[in-house]
Amino acid sequence: MSPRRRRYLTTPIYYASGEPHLGHAYTTILADVLARFDRQDGAEVLFLTGTDEHGQKIQEEAARRGVEPIELCDLMAERFAEAWRTLHISYDRFIRTTEPGHEAVVRTFLQRLWDRGQVYEDTYSGWYCVHEERYWTEKDLGPGNACPDCGRPTSHVEEKNYFFRMSAYQEALVRHIEDNPEWIVPEIRRNEVLGFLQKPLTDLSISRPKSRLRWGVTLPFDEEHVAYVWVDALINYLTASGAIRPERSADEQGFDDVSGSSWPADLHIIGKDILTTHAVYWPTLLMGVGLPLQRQILAHGWWVVGEAKMSKSLGNVVDPLALREEFGTDAVRWYLMREMPTGGDASYTPERFLARYDELANVLGNLASRSIAMIDKYRAGVVPDAADGGLDPAIASALGTAREAMARYRVHDALGAAMDLARAANGFVEERQPWSQARDADPEPLDETLATLGRVLVVLCALFQPVAPAKMADLAERLGLEGVPTLDDALSVPVAGRSVRKGAPLFPKARPAGARGTKEA
Ligand code: ME8
After folding, report:
1. pLDDT at position 350, please?
2. Which atom of ligand 1 lies closest to the CA of 27?
3. What is the pTM assigned to this prediction?
4. For domain 350-490, which architecture applies?
5. Which atom of ligand 1 is nearest to 274's Cα?
6. How far is the centre of ligand 1, averaged over its atoms, from the C-alpha of 267 (Å)?
7. In this predicted model, what pLDDT tens digit does every residue of 283-304 receive, in sequence order?
8. Residue 66 Cα, ligand 1 centroid: separation in angstroms?
9. Considering Cα of 265, then 270, then 272, then 274, what sign does the dihedral take?
10. CATH number of 6-300: 3.30.559.10, 3.40.50.620, 3.40.50.1010, 3.40.366.10?
């Protein structure tokens, strides 16, 4: 047997300074859907997420709460892990940058940069935004020295820093992006990075003096400085891959040999707000130590409220867990994935949420209920053995479209194709009128209708599984399957002769606000 295809997927590691919100949930669910799709397609997946726990932002938030930074990080790491459990996130590894193993990898990485002559010392003079954890030059700033990204006031700093010779890699990076058109997707983000790289690249400050910031990884070559939080954070992707083993002696750190590890990552899934760090800082740092680059970056858009990016600190955040309590986890996942075209922006509105929920209830849920009810009523709950009644072309086309869309990370299109198939199957029911066929002397036409509905439900189960894993496991069980089939098996798994089971609606109809209780699965 040939070895299974391996896929290593990552989300950003989220700042442990605040609670998980809808934006974090979107990225993580997107990664989860891609991971589940890959697993269902036969791949062996390493899916990484975690928390970013060092830096000034965390130090200041801990001080504001009157706790130690590590206490805040422990609390928030648990909040994120809990949110991901309730949102059915199937991550394989949750990394925290305060893990000693990670800190050792950061030091090994920086020592390697130092040994290769990639780091020098200089005085930094400029403006810093703690919220974005990044430097700005004076000409970048808005009125009142505001951060151009988040609008908060920046502060002036002048201090000794260590710098990475990032500028030396500008040409190599541009060439890499030009030679690999799919390295950054979607294309609009690739063009954004190429545009950014038209200006001369500066060197990157990679340290902070402990006199200003204590909460970080101490540099291996200067005890009085800690690593810049972004450098520390980006290295998490390497730590989790197992490529760097700090316990090895300096001359055999295995930097050049990543075999046996999961490096390079196949896909970094991020929001467009952190494109420069992932598409410029990270690859040049990897070039600096002589490691292969990540294979691909997918930068998605923002959930916005009006014109503004939805974020905790702007006070306009929708709590995905609250929606979940009302509609169930899989409905939240479905809404977020179906509503936002991967790469573009989308705005959350309660009306759109309900419209998307109604699709689940009235199209997919209704198809499952009525099909199972008719098999129950007319054939004593056993799927008849009969030829296709005419849906085979629609099934093949939905599978093809979904596969192709997923290969291009167009999750919304893949799900749209799946929902269209459910809609076509409802149309098929209206057209065949099984309740009239039941009165025919010839059992064949009704057998055909019911067998076709059984087959289409199996395929829908496979197609919706990545986005609605709990509901599809439930549906598979009702269809008498041993589990949700893989995409390859969905067409061939025998359906005839299986005993189906009626149950409560998969997606209970949304009741008007005020009359809603808790429904969950
Ligand atoms: O940037 N819409 O962490 P962070 C969509 N620690 N996605 C959103 C969003 C929105 N309105 N708001 C946030 C950091 N996100 C660093 C990352 S990685 C080595 C270090 C998502 O907690 C999106 O994925 O600020 C964005 O990139 C990420 O949350 C930022 O999370």
Report:
1. 82
2. 24
3. 0.94
4. Orthogonal Bundle (1.10)
5. 27
6. 16
7. 999 999 999 999 999 999 998 8
8. 25
9. negative
10. 3.40.50.620
